[in-house]
Amino acid sequence: FETGLSAMGNEKMWSSLMTPTFLFLSFFSVGLPQNPGSATDESDNYPPFWDQINGDIAEFPVQNNKTIIDPWNYLDRLQMYKILITQSNKYFAGFGQNNTGNRFFFNCSVYSAGRYSEPPNSSICAYEAGGPGCISINSGWGGITFYMIVISFLAAIESEFLTNLPYEVELIPREEYRSNFCYSIVECRATYPQVMDAANQYYQYLQSRKIVSIIRDIPKYDTDEDTVIFYMWKLHRTAVEVGQLKFSDISFYSSETERDFTKDFLLAIEFCEDARYRPYFESSAEFLVGFPHRLLTDQDHHILTSSFSVREKALLNSVRLISKVNGIT
């Protein structure tokens, strides 16, 4: 499908997409009521098991003077993500209270919806409320978010955004689809330089910021909101584009409808990027309330049953509309 960047260069196409994109964002910011029984506790808006980790690299096991991380273990990948959030929070102190202004928060929680499970057998690597599990290497969502989180983590080490690491970091590789993934800085730099470069630009911008004031012992940096959002979305888009090319086949999804939804949802996010959507904690949580709570089946293509909430139906129909308009313009 045509990307958001090419749409920006086509005035007619961009104009035709402005209305559905505006409605899409409006629905999930002010337009729709809360789901019945939806959580109001802020902690419920975080990914599952967020409170079980503290964002400290020292939590990973150490073997032979190396920090060992398994990127296909859900808790390990979540820990990498939380480390990036924790280390970048100080640059966003002026944008939100209690570290909620971080622009890196826009990360869809797909684990509890079963989207890290093994297709078509959703019982393997399925979400278990009692404890964290695995991420299937055959999951399209698991593969795409690998490029968003794991490569960003390695780039943070390369750019020295993550400093004072007690040991060298070693990722446990998988032999399946070995050519699709990279497990070291050297390997990622050689294989996916565009993602590493985009991540480095983001981290280098943050590192260049200076303290302009200190309020209640909290330093405030001269982080420009528009600039940091530009670099963050550039990193997000670059990583997703690589991931989508690798995981477009239906075999990586539970159904054709689920595969199409993934494509449509990520396309809608592209237009949110072009609209410079502010992905801080509250807006991201509100936006993702409509994310489908389960894997889609082919029966969901024509009729969405009552098991889907109003917001879920709105999101599913909105991203499908944006995709259709994009396809005919």
TrEMBL record:
The keyword Thylakoid does not apply. PANTHER family: CHROMOSOME 6 OPEN READING FRAME 58, LEG1. The keyword Membrane does not apply. Keywords: Signal. Residues 1-33 form the signal peptide. This is Uncharacterized protein. One of its GO terms (cellular component) is extracellular space.
